[in-house]
Amino acid sequence: MSDMTTEEVQRKQAGHLHPLTQVIREITTIFNELGFSIAQGPELETEFYNFDALNVPGDHPARDMQDTFWIKSTKKNTHGVDEKMLLRTHTSSVQIRHLENNKPPFRIIVPGKVFRNEATDATHEAQFYQVEAMLVDKEVTLAELKGTLEFFFKKIFGEEVIIRFRPSFFPFTEPSVEVDMKWKNKWLEMGGAGMVHPNVFKAVGINPDEWKGFAFGFGIDRLVMLKYGIDDIRTLYNGDLRLVNQF
Amino acid sequence: MKVSYKWLQQYFKESLPSPEKLAELFTFHSFEIESIEQQKNDTVIDAKILPDRAHYALSHHGIAEEISLVTNLEHIEREMPHIEAASSKKLTIKIKDKDFCPRYVGRVIENIAVGESQEETRELLQAVGGRSINAIVDATNFVMYDMGQPLHAFDADEVKGGIVVRVAEKGEKITTLDGKEVSLTPDDFVIADEVGPLAIAGVKGGKRAEVTKNTKSIIIESANFNPVSVRKTSNRVGIRNESSKRFENEITPEYARKAMDQVTAMIVRSSPDAKVGEIVDEYPNPVKLRTISVANSLIASVLGMDIPLAETMSILKRMGISVENKNDHLLLAIPSHRLDLVIPEDIVEEIGRIYGYEKIQSRLPVQTTREHYINKHFYYTEQIKDILVELGFSETYLYSLASKGFYEVVYPLASDKAFLRTNLSAGISKSLEMNAQNAPLLGIYKIKIFEIGTVFAEAGEYTALGLGVLHAAKKKGETADADVKAALNELEMRLKLNLNMVELTVRNGVVELNLSELIKQLPEPKDAQVFPPSKMVTYRPFSMYPFSLRDIAVFVPENTTKEDVAQVIYKNAGDLLERLDLFDVFAKKMEDGTSKTSYAYHLVLQSSEKTLAEGDITPVMENIYKEMAAKGWQVR
After folding, report:
1. End-to-end distance of chain B based on CA atoms, in angstroms?
2. Would the CB atoms of B438 and A6 count as touching at under 8 Å?
3. pLDDT at B284
4. CA distance A228 to A242
5. Residue in A143, A167, A212 nearest the CB of B29
6. Is A48 at the interface with chain B, CB within 8 A?
7. Where are the beta strands (DSSP E) in A56-147?
8. Chain B touched by A73 (CB under 8 Å)
9. Residue of B nearest to A152 (CA)
10. At A227, phi and psi to the nearest 5?
11. Quick check: bond before B412 cis, omega within 30?
């Protein structure tokens, strides 16, 4: 019988994947089943892709809905005009980039790091991960949105989950809804969703009379924290193996 | 925004449903409810009004309209008694910029009584977070909370000449009602007389024409201002209030006249001797009736529900929208205050939310084309993660904001987080140090970590791979740098890629490389990765208190197992034992010919409630020694 010391055990042991990676992979696999492809984009964005193209004009209260990390640099756009730069507040900017470069129909899933300029505490960090999805096709409605969300949340949390919509507002969707999930007898806010606003399509040269789309987004950190009972979001980002090595 | 239940009831002949029931209806058909607060004689509902509905719903009237939509109860309009003009005092209004000020309604009221408001008015104002100041100011605030139109009252005797709406001149200043001196720029608009600014338009009144208890006559302003301009000025001068909030969200100029009628009625009630002047209404370009044409087919093609036409018509009727049914589409006349209704989809949202999203029957999207591609970047970052994990490295996610870099944040949250990181190495080094402190707790003797993340070089961002190794316990013949190099070699081999090792610097066990560049050289992936579901893990939060280390080494008879030894330790240490690691095993032939085995353990003791003291640990160790001795084991 061999008694291995801890050291010998560690030599043969594998390391651990961060729970965010594990959940992101799980999410992409689920959406892959529905024909979604992965799209990614820059974290350092321009005002145009993060706001203007998404129907969020400057000097408008809608900008107050997201606290932004503005960067003290500018970037010249394709027309030679200086664009203000920021750390993206959502991965919706990648959807615009995709719309510019790809003809519909398509289905994309966009996992990525996003940034909000707000004070940190147990449930708020200045950086976190989001997953956004967009589906553009000839016939798409809120019914398909709901079906897609149900498919996804059931796979992650179990067959018993129930999804519901509440009216909301985002400048880039109309109608806009908040998505709640019932799990373990509690209703939980999971994210936002809606039908892509015609102005967003028009800004990238897609005819909104011909094409329709839905989009939704939710925080992955929140999902991870819910699924595993992690109570402080900051422990996901301080490189602490006391967390990572449990996975 | 806080609304008073009692105030809302004023709009209805029938009794309203309970506040809780209303809140529930709002939640599922209108907007989020932040709280319901029971007060002495009233209930206050705090509704989260988002920018789209802020045009009309930042008022009790607007909320009453919502109540009609979600309950089918008809709301009544306030009665505006007709007031004969009795004052002959002249009032001139000049708007210098029509784009800034689409409408200005003004009126003089003489012989006003600046006393206390009626008790009910005071109570209602206070319920929604306002203050009672005097009967005049209270009336203007009441109308603002009631109708959504901000108003202002000037002391008429302090206003020299007529009212002018103009840009501020360079160097102009104003002392506001709360005594603050504000410097103005030509980007700011003011309400002025021939002496100078009287108010920062839409934002704050000035002290010069303040309504005090000595005021005999007032000028009431009920105006409409450009939302972008008011927001810019409000932000620049640092004054945000209920008035600026409503203007920056844009309201219809049609409110201005109604509000003037309502506030006049209130003031006349509290000032019985009041002599009311003629209304002066500067409205150069009255808003035209807006119509929206909605194709019947659009409703189902957006909502995914077939809503009976009768339902649609009923909802539109309750919204005050007159409908012309033209075969395949509906031509709608939009009420002027519904500035959120612009495109057909806006109407579809109204119908959908009132009809009820719970009625949507979900279905999966039909596959039309399977234009499915594999994301090369994602494919390889994930593949590399798997290789590194196999090699014993654990994954970290670290902070993107650092203390230096090429890109600086305008409003940083902390001075050491004011720049976008240019490398992963700094964060990885810190993480190595921190984890090394916890090595006994983790039960590892080498810290091996990696991060794949974005860094921001001067030329732009790219994805970097950082590896770090730190030996928590020194091992002869092994160095951290060597471990890193070995991992890089392994990566090179498995990816069949030249990492250009000669260019890479491994320093203090840390190395970093440009993954974006590397991935460019790899072939296009053929098959999509299928990942297993994330692990089922029962996560245990770790204690924030320091741990203590103790060692135990014991000789046991040949047939005693390490599990037997461990059992004794577990039993006596209980909850305090965070980790038990076997660090040495050997067999020894004793002088009497018997064979004994030596087991040596590291004990990591920690409490989740406090820092352990000697007094906590010593008894535990004593108990362990006692039990081992009782079993005839020889503690070394």
Report:
1. 72
2. no
3. 94
4. 14
5. A167
6. no
7. 69-76, 82-87, 106-115, 127-137
8. yes
9. B364
10. -65, -40
11. no
Structure tokens, B583: 């660090």
Asked if B363's CB is within 8 angstroms of A14's CB, the reply is: no
Q: Are B354 and B69 in contact, with CB atoms under 8 Å apart?
A: yes
d(CA A152, CA A144): 12
Interface of A with B in 169-208 (CB under 8 A): 169, 171, 174-178, 195, 197-198
Q: What are the pLDDT digits (tens) for A11-20?
A: 778 999 999 9
Put simply, whether the predicted model's pTM sits higher than 0.80 gets the answer yes
Contact between A11 and B392 using a beta-carbon 8 Å cutoff: yes
pLDDT over threshold 90, residue A145 = yes
Mutate to test the interface with A, among B236, B293, B306, B349 (most CBs of A within 10 A): B349
Q: Where would I find the beta strands (DSSP E) of B321-410?
A: 322-326, 329-334, 394-395, 401-402
Whole-angstrom distance, CA of residue A116 vs CA of residue A233: 14
Shortest Cα distance, chain B CAs vs residue A3, angstroms:
7
Best CA proximity match to A36, nearest among A105, A99, A92, A97: A105
Return the number of CB contacts < 8 Å for A and B. Answer: 307
pLDDT digits (tens, 9 = 90+) for B500-554: 877 788 999 999 999 999 999 999 998 888 888 888 889 988 888 999 999 999 9
Check CB contact under 8 Å for B32 and A166: yes
- Does residue A1 register a pLDDT over 50? no
CA angle B28, B30, B33 (to 5 degrees): 75
Residue from A16, A23, A29, A18 nearest A222 by CA? A23
B266 three-state secondary structure? helix
Nearest partner of A33 among B528, B254, B418, judged by Cα? B528
Residues of A in contact with B413 (CB under 8 A): 117, 119-120, 126
Q: Do B481 and B506 meet the contact criterion of CB atoms below 8 Å apart?
A: yes
User: B558 to each of A147, A189, B593, how far by Cα in Å?
Assistant: 64, 59, 12
Quick check: helix, strand or coil at residue A192? strand
- Chain B residues 49-68 with CB within 8 Å of chain A: 50-54
